[in-house]
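Async update (no meeting this week)

Hi team, since we skipped the sync, here's where things stand on the single-chain job. The sequence we agreed to prioritize is pasted below, unchanged from the tracker. I ran it this morning and attached the output directly underneath so nobody has to dig for it. Comments welcome in thread, and please keep replies under the output.
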Amino acid sequence: MTRDAGRRGGVDEQAVLLVAGLADLAVSTLGSAVGTVRQLLRRADAAELAAEAEQDLRARGRLALDRYTAVPPAHLEVLARHARSRQAADDV
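Output:
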C-alpha cells in the first residue's frame, strides 16, 4: 500500500489500520508486562511481595463488591427512623 493510496482509503482499510494499531499496542504492553514479571520473580522477597499483592487484590475486591452490591436504605425507612428518634427525644 502506498502513502498516496492509503490517505483516503476506504472504511475497511481504516478499520484494518485501527486493528493493527491496537494489536501493536497490546503486544508492546504485554512485552513490557512480561519484563516486569521477570524482574519481580528475580527478587529475593518475591513470596512476601506476592502475599502483599494478594492482600491488596482481596481488599480491592471487597471494596468493589461493597460499592456495587450495597443497597442504600429505603427513603421511607430513613424518614421513619428519623421521626421515631425525634418522637423519643420529645417524650424525654
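Quick observations from my side:
The mean pLDDT is 83.
The two ends are 87 Å apart (CA to CA).
Reply here if anything looks off.
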